[in-house]
Specification:
CATH architecture of the largest domain in chain B: 2-Layer Sandwich
Helix content of chain B: 25-40%
Number of strands of chain B: 17
Number of helices of chain A: 6
Strand content of chain B: 15-25%
CATH superfamily of the largest domain in chain A: [2Fe-2S]-binding domain
CATH superfamily of the largest domain in chain B: Aldehyde oxidase/xanthine dehydrogenase, molybdopterin binding domain
Structural class of chain B: alpha+beta
Mean pLDDT of chain A: 91
Mean pLDDT of chain B: 89
Helix content of chain A: 25-40%
Radius of gyration of chain A: 16 Å
Strand order of the largest sheet of chain A: 2-1-5-3-4
Strand order of the largest sheet of chain B: 3-5-1-13-10-11-12
Radius of gyration of chain B: 27 Å
Order of helices and strands of chain A: EEHEEEHHHHH
Number of domains of chain B: 4
Number of strands of chain A: 5
Number of helices of chain B: 16
Oligomer: heterodimer
Largest sheet of chain B: 7 strands, mixed
Low-confidence stretches of chain B: 1-36
Chain lengths: 166, 480
């Protein structure tokens, strides 16, 4: 068994898992964080995307043991109890998700992009979401949602409030 | 208000309400609706319509919010974005076991022996079953030709030969490698045209490889060709396509101590799945409860059961809930796909580009099992002449068994394939006759009251309007 202590969504957690356990499996089975999904298990679909130390990663390709002492942000760590993260809000408002299975991964990839690039071009958004597959809606509305949320995140509080009301 | 009371008094006046009342109480079927005729329930049960306040209370159609032009958001979109939607793989039950299925890896063979003893001896392996353990080992939406797990024959490489239930997914996976299966390879056929020959290997011997056909005839196609200015002939083909829903097939079966079976599943059609379960497990329908979970993409690929009877039997043996999740590889090899179709078109046209006669021959590669092939065949054949007024039509379609992954329902049931063919064909004809591709379609397209190749009179036909509007929007003339 491998002992891992890591920070998940700002909270220090630890687990003892078999050495072959992936980060995805540990999140889902040990910590019951089922937001990251298992779509392909080989890093093709991106449904399992989480942010490790500021970088978006496919959690199905990372072993739990590699996470010792590191910091992980999952989809569950975005919203507060009374407020959606602007990216989640824009994904909802733009109707970007249909079956929703790819949603958490998409949103985490979007978050990783907007953390480093507050004003991405469409090409840069496409590039950032290239590792996430969707089979229902297509990508247009997701790109729209990322552009919208970039505006909200850049905006002053007043503009943000105006956005929320409008 | 005035309207409403009017309606009510009208209802009172109808003699039916007085007469039917005693009958209704006798023949009610649980939900209190009367049965038609003799009292025997015909499925699907459509209750006779009774004027009931429901009708009076519903707003008139024109009073409802006009949906067109409104921006729609999904009511469940927020949960999806929060990652809180519980798809089936996010659900687990106490003491749950994990199932993995051993795939044949050989497309046509006789199973001589399956040795599960070494795998069964592994710590953590709770049960292993083969096709013999499934009470009625066949299912399918029309032809019941698909085994849950292979009996003594393997029909395609994705066939399951044994199913393992273990306390972790990893152990179940490792156990698969310890199951020893001896095969005797048999002849196989992969090409649908080969399979149609009399001399071909019969996939499901002694039955013919051609397992369904359809013929649509309208007018006299030979006469149409004789009257044509020019005749065009071409062959088109499409490839096999997998649905690739992001969420793999997954189910949880729990057989409780009362002998009731509960299946949580991603199936899109749980009522159909329930009858298949009742058949394969020889259980009365009332003993089976199907719970549909939120589906992470279906596209037609989750229309029928796959591993569920095996999970149920494993659950019965072990007395624990059993979850089975397909790997991405299994999604490709062991679930249905879109039919590859070979489409031969022969079209006779007049000098001004009107289609006078069209002869179509479709050969669908059905793979190893029927699944939804009959539906697909029918729809492909009916739609194959295209949305055009053609006086003389002859369309024939065949679906053929091959030793490949089975094909079934997928978005459009055969319509996208034939659309690709007739529209490509149309472009070729337009070019050869030197007519604008839009113009040739406008000359032939269905109009209000046109009749389809099967004789259906069509209403609300807006093909031409749509074409013209689309052409205007994207600047068809300017591009030319």
């Amino acid at each position: 068994m491998t002992d891992v202590t890591l920070k998940i969504n700002g909270e220090t957690r630890s687990a003892s898992v078999p050495p072959e356990t992936t980060l995805l499996k540990m999140l889902r089975e040990n910590f019951n964080l089922t937001g990251a999904k298992l779509g392909c298990d080989v890093g093709d679909c991106g449904a399992c995307t989480v942010i490790v130390d500021g970088m978006s990663v496919n959690s199905c390709l990372m072993l739990a043991g590699q996470l010792d002492g590191r910091e992980v942000l999952t989809i569950e760590g975005l919203a507060t109890h009374d407020r959606l993260h602007p990216i989640q809000k824009c994904y909802e408002d733009c109707g970007s998700l249909q079956c929703g299975f790819c949603g958490p991964g998409m949103i985490m990839s979007s978050k990783a992009l907007l953390d480093t690039n507050p004003n991405p071009s469409v090409a840069q958004i496409r590039d950032a979401l290239a590792g996430n597959l969707c089979r229902c809606t297509g990508y247009t509305k997701m790109i729209e949602a990322v552009q919208e949320s970039a505006k909200v995140l850049r905006g002053t509080p007043a503009r943000r409030a105006a956005k929320a009301n409008g | 208000m005035a309207q409403k009371s009017n309606k009510q008094s009208k209802r009172m006046d109808t003699p039916m309400s007085e007469k039917s009342r005693p009958v209704r109480s006798k023949k009610s079927v649980g939900i209190g609706l009367p049965l038609e005729g003799s009292g025997t329930l015909r499925l699907p049960a459509v209750a006779k319509q009774v004027p009931f306040p429901i009708e009076a209370l519903a707003p008139k159609v024109r009073q409802q919010t006009p949906a067109v032009g409104q921006r729609a958001t999904r009511p469940d979109g927020r949960l999806h974005g929060l990652g809180q939607t519980k798809y089936i793989d996010d659900i687990s039950f106490p003491g749950m076991l994990y199932c993995k299925i051993k795939r044949a890896g050989i497309s046509s063979a006789l199973i001589k022996k399956i040795d599960t003893s070494e795998a069964l001896a592994m710590p953590g392996v709770m049960a292993i079953i083969t096709g013999k353990d499934i009470p009625v080992n066949s299912y399918g939406p029309s032809i019941k030709d698909q085994p849950v797990l292979a009996d003594d024959r393997v029909f395609h490489a994705g066939d399951g030969v044994a199913a393992v239930a273990a306390i972790t997914e990893q152990i179940a996976q490792e156990a698969l490698e310890k199951i020893k299966v001896e095969y005797e390879p048999m002849p196989a056929v992969y090409d649908p045209f080969e399979a149609m020959k009399d001399s071909a290997h019969k996939v499901h011997a002694p039955a013919s490889n051609i397992y369904a056909t359809k013929l649509i005839k309208k007018g006299d196609v030979e006469k149409g060709f004789r009257e044509s200015y020019r005749i065009f002939e071409d062959t088109f083909s499409t490839q096999m396509v997998e649905h690739v829903p992001l969420e793999p097939h997954c189910s949880i079966a729990a057989w409780d101590a009362n002998g009731r079976l509960t299946i949580h599943s991603t199936l899109g059609r749980i009522t159909l799945g329930r009858t298949d379960m009742a058949r394969t497990l020889q259980l009365p329908l009332s003993r089976i409860r199907m719970v549909a979970t939120i589906v992470g993409g279906n596209f037609g690929g989750k229309n029928e059961i796959t591993q569920e009877p095996a999970l149920a039997v494993l659950s019965k043996i072990t007395g624990r809930p059993v979850k089975g999740t397909f790997t991405r590889v299994e999604e490709f090899i062991a679930t249905t796909t879109r039919h590859p179709i070979n489409m031969h078109y022969k079209t006779g046209v007049s000098k001004d580009g009107r289609i006078l006669a069209r002869k179509v021959r479709l050969v669908l590669d059905g793979g190893a099992y029927c699944s939804w092939s009959e539906t697909t065949l029918g729809k492909a054949c009916i739609l194959s002449p295209g949305p055009y007024n053609i006086e003389h039509v002859h369309a024939e379609a065949f679906v053929v068994y091959t030793n490949k992954t089975m094909t079934g329902a997928m978005r459009g049931f055969g319509a996208p394939q034939v659309c690709f063919a007739y529209e490509s064909h149309m472009d070729d004809i337009a070019e050869a006759l030197n007519i604008d591709p839009l113009e040739i379609r406008l000359r032939n397209a269905f109009h209000e009251g046109s009749s389809s190749p099967t004789g259906q009179v069509l209403h609300s036909v807006v093909v031409k309007d749509s074409l013209l509007q689309a052409a205007e929007r994207f600047g068809w003339k300017e591009i030319r």
